[in-house]
Write a structure and sequence with these properties.
The protein is an all-alpha fold and 101 residues long. 63% of the residues lie in helices and 0% in strands.
């Protein structure tokens, strides 16, 4: 890191709890989507695409939460520097395709 840049990386206990809860919610979403995908009794191709899109969207969110340095709000403030955008784009495409299948 250059000498003239200052990066704040302290995370308060309250922010740590927010990040932990966010990670748990996204992990639960991934597990539920996997369960519905595998154990679903009458899954159509359309519903399977929605579940796969949900898994990819949760992975996208989880990867971006891992980049949080001090507070969760920094994900929603410009400049936006999202990582693993291909997961989000693929999830969007799968959900759109599921409307027509």
């Amino acid at each position: 890191m250059p000498d003239n840049s200052y990066e704040f990386s302290y995370m308060s206990a309250r922010e740590k709890k927010k990040v932990l809860v966010s990670k748990c919610i996204l992990a639960l979403l991934m597990l539920l989507a996997f369960y519905w995908l595998i154990a679903g009794e009458a899954n159509t191709l359309s519903s399977e695409l929605v579940f796969i899109g949900g898994i990819l969207a949760a992975i996208f969110g989880y990867i971006n939460i891992l980049t949080v340095k001090s507070e969760l709000v920094e994900l929603f403030e410009p400049p936006y520097t999202y990582r693993a955008g291909e997961f989000a784009i693929t999830a969007i495409i799968l959900n759109v395709i599921s409307w027509f299948v």
